[in-house]
Specification:
By secondary structure, the chain is an all-beta fold. It has no helices and 36 strands.
Length: about 475
């Protein structure tokens, strides 16, 4: 799972509290340290790191050579204390002509099985800016291979259609847990126009298959064509789920041109579409947010509603689709008497779902007893029975009396949730002994004890250095 940059090089908060599981968090690299594998170079700036299922860490960072005037960028991977250099500025690009080098890396990905993916910006003989200066590289350390490059033939498409990197959007190689590769790219060629100039491929490194193309017929729509896609999620089984839009023609307009689709290389299926009935509501969908998707094919999504009885007080909801069963998990305007008399759901959404069918999503309450100090909460649990787990204004678990949770509503933007059920998420806290320097806490949901534990806190001293975690 991907973690924010400040989640590594940290320290456990357990101290002497026997109720808190002991977790060792090992420092990996500091700014000012020698850059591993690059003689005479010093680490200067870290980008968000990642960690795989075996505890190997992928470090994406900038470095400076002694006496140098500009920073280089590199990737390192391995266990703490044994990082190996993967790529660096000026390195010969794998599978390309001698002298073609990687000037810098773009987006990076580390799969749970240890495979690495990154996009590289190239220079050297035969490399032309905006034509073939961006490529994808995938593999295990020691076996990194080029997969796609600007100007390459687009897999599975008509002759003459090539990968177009002229807009500098890159070719980000997203990897699933088992290193299934997803590539989204722009296209160019004699038969390419604005109607069909984007495509998505999925599969193993050496066998990418076309799964979607702009302008193709959208399943479930009686011949309508895709105009765009976004929010693409995918899994180990070569399946995707995404929000899509339809070309506005033949009776399709802004009111019914959006929907959700999922499926694999053998075909996609429409899951929901604007102006179709939304199960459990008596109303119709009217706009979708990006879906969540797991390795079992379960989809979760939030959407707006329109129709009879729909007002600004109840025009949003959250649904799950597991197998053939579409279920409403919650709707704006729902009463939640367990929270308090007259308390309702004001907003709902931002879902996550893992392979254990555990869901996590955000809710905001309204009512006479609700104000800015206690309005936001997170729900967690089985797909059919999630419950409130953290809430603004509640006591912060394992802290002294009077220490309260705050900024719980910010969790969805920073949460990391793995397939065995562990969750890492940050909040802030408030209380008598809390200041701006120590108000951010990183929490671990322990799947065995089904309880939140503090992993670390800003203001903690680690090897003589004070940890600073920016607030949300």
């Amino acid at each position: 799972m991907r973690l924010a940059a400040h989640l590594l090089s940290l320290v456990v908060l357990a101290g002497g509290d026997p109720q808190v599981p002991r977790v060792e968090i090992t420092p990996v690299l500091h700014t000012g340290d020698p850059a591993p594998g690059i003689p005479g170079a010093t680490m200067t700036l870290f980008l968000p790191p990642q960690i795989d299922g075996a505890g190997n860490v992928l470090i994406d960072a900038f470095y400076m050579l002694d006496g140098g005037s500009s920073a280089g960028r590199g990737l390192w991977c391995g266990p703490p204390g044994a990082l190996q250099l993967v790529t660096f500025t000026g390195m010969q690009a794998p599978d390309l002509a001698p002298g073609v080098v990687i000037d810098s890396t773009g987006d990076t990905w580390l799969a749970e099985n240890g495979w690495i993916g990154f996009s590289g910006h190239l220079s050297g003989p035969g490399v032309v800016s905006g034509v073939n200066d961006i490529a994808n590289f995938i593999g295990q350390p020691g076996d990194i291979r080029k997969v796609l490059q600007g100007g390459d033939p687009a897999p599975g498409l008509e002759p003459g259609t090539v990968i177009d990197v002229s807009s500098s959007n890159g070719l980000t190689p997203w990897l699933s847990d088992n290193a299934t590769l997803l590539v989204i790219a722009w296209l160019a060629g004699p038969q390419v126009d604005e109607i069909n100039d984007q495509a998505i491929w999925i599969g193993p490194r050496d066998d990418l298959q076309l799964i979607w193309r702009k302008g193709m017929e959208a399943p479930g729509t009686n011949g309508a064509r895709f105009a765009w896609q976004d929010g693409v999620m995918f899994n180990d089984n070569h399946e995707i789920a995404f929000r899509g839009g339809l070309v506005r023609e033949g009776g399709i307009d802004h009111s019914n041109d959006g929907g959700l689709w999922a499926g694999g290389v053998n075909g996609l299926e429409m899951l929901a579409r604007e102006l179709e009935e939304a199960p459990g509501t008596g109303a119709c969908y009217f706009g979708f947010n990006h879906p969540a998707f797991n390795s079992l094919g379960t989809v979760m999504f939030s959407a707006l509603l329109t129709g009879r009885g729909v007002t600004s007080e109840n025009d949003g909801g959250l649904w799950s689709l597991a197998g053939e069963q579409m279920k409403l998990l919650g709707r704006e305007g729902d009463f939640v008497p367990e929270i308090g008399p007259g308390v309702e759901v004001q907003s709902i959404g931002s879902p996550h779902v893992n392979a254990c069918e555990k869901v996590l999503y955000r809710v905001k309450y309204r009512g006479d007893s609700i104000d800015n100090s206690n309005a936001w909460a997170m729900y967690l649990g089985a797909l059919d029975a999630p419950e409130q787990t953290l809430r603004d204004g509640d006591p912060a678990p394992h802290f002294e009396d009077g220490t309260l949770l705050t900024f719980v509503g910010g969790i969805p933007g920073f949460v990391a949730m793995n397939d065995v059920g562990d969750i890492i998420a940050p909040t802030e806290i408030a209380g008598e002994n809390v200041s701006n320097e120590n108000q951010v806490v990183l929490w671990l949901w322990n799947r065995v004890r089904e309880e939140w534990f503090p992993l670390l806190r800003s203001g903690t001293t680690i090897e003589g250095r004070t940890l600073s975690i920016p607030g949300q």
